[in-house]
Amino acid sequence: MKNIELGAIMPHPPIIIPEIGKGRLKEVEQTINGLQGLAERMKTKDYDTLIIITPHGEIGQASVPVYTSHIFEGSFSSFGVAKPVYSFKGDTELGLAIIKDCDFATSCPETLLDHGILVPAYFPKAAGISTPILPIAIAFMSLAKLYEFGKSLAKTVKRLDRKVAIIASADMSHRLTSDAPAGFSPRGKEFDEKLVELIKNYDVPGILNFDPALGDEAGQDALWSIAILLGALDGLTVRPELISYEGPFGVGYMVAAFEPSYGG
């Protein structure tokens, strides 16, 4: 049974939304083209749910927050664009089942979407996809523990016989240039180059054992959500695809896809 149809890494800079980026969209064209291409690919699948893992929002400490509302909405008002307000159906049944099956997941009643969810969700919605979403926030726990959560999530998806795409919302180093949001560090580029290579090679142990000091110095918010995604893909034969990488505004943006192969 093909339950996980697609895994993806999508960045979440609001500047790639047309109403926000406006005249600067050309500077981040690779990322936008990559995300639009992924959305078009998603249109060819009949998903039951899009699972989106955000490193923002209701971040957990000892448990992973799973959003369980029937409906979600959000806008880019904090980025100067109050309208439109985007709305999405939720998958409460799947969310509650994930919580039941995992002893370190917890219900999150939040209905307002942060940009870590809203930016990746924008592109499938703009492509005409109206599939329900299931937002999940990260928790500040070990990558190995988050990987275990991803494995549990996949078992629940299979038990409920859902067909899903799983999106890890992830920006890379925030310290690539002198005008970067978190200031400059020469290790920002090192972090991004290393993570890109690990993704290209689908080196799961390398990612789970990533040097935490390098991650901290780079100012990243990618590893947590990616660890959950990789856990969900555990045991599957996966074809990794690096679609694009660029860092035009001092932050690294990677778009990648993971196509599971079920044989037959």
Explain what the structure shows:
- This protein is α/β, with parallel strands linked by helices and 264 residues long.
- The protein has one domain: LigB-like (Protocatechuate 4,5-dioxygenase, Chain B, 3-Layer(aba) Sandwich), CATH 3.40.830.10.
- Helix content is 36%, strand content 25%.
- The strands form three sheets. Strands 7-2-8-1-10-9 form a six-stranded mixed sheet, with helices on both faces.
- Helix 2 crosses helix 4.
- The longest helix is centred in the middle third of the chain and has 17 residues.
- The radius of gyration is 17 Å and the shape is globular.
- The model has no long low-confidence stretch (mean pLDDT 96).
Give a topology summary.
Layout: E1 4-10, H1 18-21, H2 29-43, E2 49-54, E3 64-67, E4 71-76, E5 81-89, H3 92-101, E6 105-108, H4 115-126, E7 133-137, H5 143-159, E8 164-169, H6 186-200, H7 204-208, H8 212-218, H9 223-232, E9 237-246, E10 253-261
Parallel strand pairs: 1-8, 2-7, 2-8, 3-6
Antiparallel strand pairs: 1-10, 4-5, 9-10
Helix pairs in contact: 2-4, 3-5, 5-9, 6-8
